[in-house]
Amino acid sequence: MKVLLADDHRLVRAGLRALLDSIASVEVVAEASDGEEAMRLMHELRPDVAMVDIAMPRLSGLAVLHQVCAAGLPTRVLLLSMYDNDEYVAEAVRAGAAGYLIKDSAVEELGLALQALERGDVYLSPAISRKLAAAFSAGRASPGLTARQTQVLRLIALGMSSKEVARELDLSVKTVETHRTQIMDRLQIRDLAGLVRYAVRTGLVGTDP
After folding, report:
1. How confident is the model over 24-36, as pLDDT tens digits?
2. CB neighbours of 166 closer than 8 A, spacing ≥ 6?
3. Of 78, 106, 148, 178, which residue is most buried, by most CB within 10 angstroms?
4. Residue 193 is part of which domain span?
């Protein structure tokens, strides 16, 4: 896996580079100190993954993410942040981020995040997943989804068909299918298995639904 590392703090980059270099399957192909440099290198090198700090000069991590998606680049963007701010996470998921990793996470999380991205999954730090689970329990929506879409996602992940979800939520089958399509688009997930993994990882359903 070829990785681009983008962070405006030299010491942070050095620490992350050391961790990445210790992972046999990872090759750091370049480093960037601001968002514009990160975009230039992504166009030039086409890395598999770009680890991008959410707060950078010239272009923020979120702005980089939007440009990567708009340009149709193959690189998957893993955002790095000091904060588990709900609004940042929601915008990141809506914009197509492949993951959101909190900087004070356990070291092992970096490897887990990259493994998830390699499988084509979306990775969220456990701290964020716990917040999502708490938000769902309180009746709030998952990042990037409306409250109704969160309900639909949970029922789909529990194994219900569109017809069963429609009956449970008193909706038409067509409306459920529309919600399902919108959920997959917003989460950048392309199959049912991916939706189930996302629902488990974010606490919407248990590991044995």
Report:
1. 889 999 999 999 9
2. 172, 173, 175, 176
3. 78
4. 131-201
